[in-house]
Write a structure and sequence with these properties.
binds uridine-diphosphate-N-acetylglucosamine; elongated; 452 residues; 21-stranded parallel sheet; binds calcium ion; single chain; 2 domains
């Protein structure tokens, strides 16, 4: 049976107190609604429709690359009214699954199960210790679900029910279409409640099937920043657990944040306050020191990253040693056994095997050969104020401390640059180049004295 998914995302999210529409707030670095859409995509539906309203253009434009149809709900007259905006685009025999743009951690396997029951109305429920605020699932004496009562319409007896409506449901479009036309807004909120279709199904003798989630986090919605933070913590802990179960030592699962996907080898060790973002892969025995941020990086076996590094869009070869306090910027590629030390910034450069840049340097737009030693305080002057230029340093070069390499410039194999030089011309193979004022000493020099 073909599946059509409708995601409701028209609510304002007033309780976020934000200029950003609620569904664009991020969980683990990704907008809430994007998470729901990506989950929906894994179910291979025929169509995904997103019902948007308040701030909708911003939502639509923010997620324009995703393969969904955008359906405007001009006035938010209730969940039933929202679904009614999208249902005309769905064929009668399709299965329709209703999801929510602010329920980010829903589990696709459970959705699959919910959609597998046909010729029925399938409702996803949960049991909560504190069900306040949710619609309650009312069952008859045969334990059959017969209706949903919203909190605001509930009496004390109903309020005592702990089984709640997650809002997520699945049924045939044909049924849904008929039920939606029969909704009214005769309730305490004056809204068209989607939940009223349950009682209609009972009247129509359509079986009602319920699935109850075992982990309530997956059906939790986000209404304010506190709920967002608590779902974020839950999600992060889950990810840390997954890493640990895959053989990674995580020094403190509460102090690791993963905002993307991480692939790991054996015996990886991650110290506290580490953020891994985008697509990160860590080879066997990689060690990451505390307070480090890594975004989009391929890090090979036996790499050691010491504390306080910032690493983005980088490839790091086996056995490299990085940091502490190193910054590796996009398009940097380090081969094996490279050492990058403290207060070194590298941008758009390649460094070949065994080379060392250990202290206080800026290397940009450069190509560095094998076994090169770059002395402390070396700067590649890659920018002339208008254009960027390249520095090429070939194998076995020794660059003395406090050297400026004014690009474009090429240093040939085995060359040595004396400390404190400003290199503006290409340097030949095996030569020593010194460009600095000759040292002079003056005898009997008296230092100035403080005036009385
Ligand atoms: C709804 C359910 C309730 C359930 C709860 C779960 C109804 C009547 N009630 O209540 O049984 O326990 O969700 O969280 O369905 N939306 C629109 N357009 C609208 C109204 C809502 O797109 O006109 C969207 C909202 O953006 C939100 C979702 O639908 O994502 C739920 O709306 P909300 O008003 O939060 O429903 P609740 O009152 O919480
Ligand atoms: Ca409401």
């Amino acid at each position: 049976m073909k599946l059509s998914i409708i995601i409701l995302a028209a609510g304002q999210g007033k309780r976020m107190h934000s200029d950003l529409p609620k569904v664009l707030h991020c969980l683990a670095g990704k907008p809430l609604l994007q998470r729901v859409i990506e989950t929906a995509i894994t179910l291979s539906p025929e169509t995904i429709q997103v019902v948007y309203g308040h701030g909708g253009e911003q939502v639509r434009d923010g997620l324009a690359d995703l393969p969904v149809q955008w359906i405007k709900q001009d006035q938010q007259l209730g969940t039933g009214h929202a679904v009614a905006q999208a249902i005309p685009n769905v064929a009668d025999d399709n299965m329709v699954l209703i999801l929510y743009g602010d329920v980010p951690l829903i589990n696709p396997t459970n959705l699959q199960t919910l959609c597998s029951e046909q010729n029925s109305l399938n409702v996803l429920t949960a049991k909560l210790d504190n069900p306040t605020g949710y619609g309650r699932i009312v069952r008859d004496n045969k334990d059959q679900m017969i209706r949903i009562v919203e909190e605001k319409d509930a009496d004390i007896k109903i309020k005592a029910i702990k089984e709640i409506n997650t809002g997520i449901l699945a049924t045939q479009a044909g049924y849904l279409r008929t039920w939606l036309t029969n909704l009214n807004n005769d309730n305490s909120q004056g809204e068209y409640y989607l939940t009223d279709i349950i009682a209609m199904a009972v009247t129509d003798n359509i079986p009602i099937h319920t699935d109850t989630v075992s982990d309530v986090h997956e059906i939790m919605g986000v209404n304010n920043r506190q709920q967002l933070a608590s779902l974020e913590r839950y999600y992060q802990l889950q990810q840390a657990n997954n890493l640990m179960l895959a053989g990674v030592t995580v020094q403190d699962p509460n102090r690791l944040d993963i905002r993307g996907t991480v692939q790991t080898g054996y015996d990886v060790n991650i110290d506290i306050n580490v953020i891994l973002a985008g697509k990160v892969s860590l080879g066997n025995r990689v060690k990451i020191g505390p307070n480090t941020i890594i975004r989009n990086a391929k890090i090979a076996d036996d790499v050691e990253i010491l504390s306080n590094c910032v690493i983005e869009d980088v490839v790091i070869g086996a056995g490299c040693k990085i940091g502490p306090f190193a910054r590796l910027r996009p398009e940097t590629e380090l081969a094996e056994q490279v050492h990058i030390g403290n207060f070194v910034e590298i941008k758009k450069s390649s460094v070949a095997k065994g080379s060392k840049i250990n202290h206080l340097s800026y290397i940009g737009d450069s190509e560095i050969g094998r076994n090169v030693n770059i002395g402390a305080g070396t700067i590649t002057c890659n920018y002339d104020g208008a254009n960027k230029h390249k520095t090429v340093i070939k194998d076995d070069v020794f660059i003395g401390s406090d050297t400026q390499l004014v690009a474009p410039v090429i240093i040939e194999n085995g060359a040595t640059i004396g400390a404190g030089s400003t290199v503006t011309k290409n340097v030949g193979e095996g030569t020593l180049t010194v460009s600095r004022v000759e040292q002079k000493s003056f005898k009997g020099w008296e230092r100035p004295r403080k005036k009385k």
